[in-house]
Amino acid sequence: MTELRRRVLELLWASGGPTSAYQLIESVKLGDSRPVGPPTVYRALAFLMAQGLVSRIESLNAYVPCVHPERDHDCLFFICGGCRTSVELEDPRIGGLLAEDAASLGFVMTRRTVEVEGRCARCVEAGAA
Known about the structure:
The chain is an alpha+beta fold and 129 residues long. The protein has 5 helices and 5 strands. It is globular and about 55 Å long.
C-alpha cells in the first residue's frame, strides 16, 4: 500500500459519502505540495477496488469505502437522490437470485453491483415537514 493509496482510502473514509475522483484529486492536492493528476488517482482507486477496499457507485460516478472489505460480497447500494448519501447493504438473497438468473441464461458474472435510487428517511421526513 503506497502512501497515495492509503491517503485516497483515508479521504474516502473521512468523506462520509460518495466521492468523485476529482474531489479526491482536490483533497489530495490540499495535503500535498506536489501536483496529482487524474491518472494517478484513478490508478490508486483501481488498486483499492481490486483489493476489495473500495466500491464504485456507477450512477454517481463516485467511490465509497467497502463496509466489509474482509468478506467477498455483492455490492447493494441504496442511494439518496436528495442528499447523495449511500448505504451499502449485504443481502445474500439478492446475490443468490442473480446467480440463479445468470445460470439460467448461461451467463458468467464477473461483478455484481446493484444500485437502488430513492430518498433516505431523513430527506423524506424533511420533505414532509
